[in-house]
Design brief:
By secondary structure, this protein is α/β, with parallel strands linked by helices. It is built from nine helices and 14 strands. Helices cover 26% and strands 20% of the residues.
């Protein structure tokens, strides 16, 4: 059987962090990956050290560059790709790559919760599992994944749910599949959602998330326009609700920039037609020009909106993009 070609791009993170490594705490993973003898029977693995950074220090522009590099490397005949980074922003990296690289090649993002110097370090198992997924024909055409703790999660739904446990990632409906005795076993195939007009034309833009707590007076919200942001994601209460004090400000903002209405819950679909009769309901806000995030949480809504703004999309294209991520699609 012909060996599959897998390319690993390393960005840093806990998986490469060594407290005893001197000034350069984040080490080069290349020698370690090259020592994974288990993969030599089924895959040829090449490692590219892109950067050595904590995941909290990554920027959207960094992941855009990773996506561009993956597109370039596809032309060199690779069958699958793995991005290794810190776990804090893995779900965001995976979703960005899902949007940026519309190709059948498996793209996996992984990392570790325990650094290499700790007992029971989970990095080796996560890398090995990721290589198996990247080399699997079963995983072609299913989009980008997070592979962690022998679970295969879709980039659409995965979230980090624990700051210490090796079971740090979960999805609303569970993983797409698992590693069973080292073999990827896919149980669920996600609906493919493609945004055809993502074609980046400008430098990275910045979009804030405004999270609405109990009894918010909206004072900070009034500064969004003043600060010149080109868009906003509102992380609202429940199915898409805010205190009535915020409504006028939101309506004014939505008349000037795209304002996406997401939920702080992080699961389920945004409501569109349940509550009426009071300012601040989802019907009230959508009627004032806010755009429903559909099934996306605020963090992923922000990333989609950033790419759409960088692609100079029209308002109609932005609305349609979020409809693709809704129950109407």
């Amino acid at each position: 059987m012909k060996k599959k070609r897998v390319c690993i791009l390393t960005l840093g993170g806990t998986i490469a962090f060594s407290p005893n490594a001197g000034d350069e705490k984040i080490t080069d993973l290349t020698p370690f990956i090259e020592g994974l003898d288990e993969v030599k029977d089924f895959a040829e693995v090449n490692t590219i050290a892109v950067m050595r950074s904590s995941s909290s220090a990554l920027h959207v522009s960094d992941i855009i560059q990773v996506g561009m590099e993956i597109k370039r490397l596809i032309g060199e005949g690779y069958d699958g790709f793995i991005v290794i980074q810190g776990t804090d922003t893995i779900e965001e990296t995976a979703f960005l790559l899902q949007l940026l690289v519309d190709m059948p090649h498996p793209i996996i993002v992984t990392g570790a919760m325990r650094n290499p110097d700790m007992r029971g370090a989970d990095g080796p198992a996560n890398i090995l599992a990721s290589i198996r997924v990247a080399a699997s024909d079963k995983c072609r055409g299913l989009g980008a994944f997070v592979v962690f703790n022998d679970e295969i999660h879709s980039a659409y739904f995965v979230r980090k749910v624990h700051p210490q446990s090796t079971e740090a990632f979960a999805s609303e409906f569970g993983p797409l599949g698992y590693l069973a005795e080292g073999t990827p076993s896919i149980r669920v195939v996600p609906v493919k959602r493609t945004i055809p007009w993502i074609n980046l034309k400008t430098e990275q833009v910045h979009v804030p998330i405004y999270s609405v707590p109990l009894g918010d007076d909206g004072m900070l919200l009034t500064k969004i326009e003043e600060l010149g942001y080109p868009g906003l994601v509102l992380e609202a209460l429940g199915g898409g609700h805010t205190p009535s004090e915020l409504v006028d400000t939101l309506e004014r903002l939505a008349g000037k920039i795209p304002v996406v209405l997401a939920s702080r819950i992080g699961a389920g679909d945004m409501l569109t037609d349940t509550y009426s009769g009071y300012p601040g309901s989802e019907i009230s806000l959508l009627g004032r020009g806010l755009i429903s995030a559909g099934l996306l949480d605020a963090r992923k809504s922000r990333l989609l909106l950033i790419l759409l703004l960088m692609s100079e999309c029209s308002r109609d294209q932005i609305v349609e993009s979020f409809r693709i991520f809704s129950k109407e699609f």
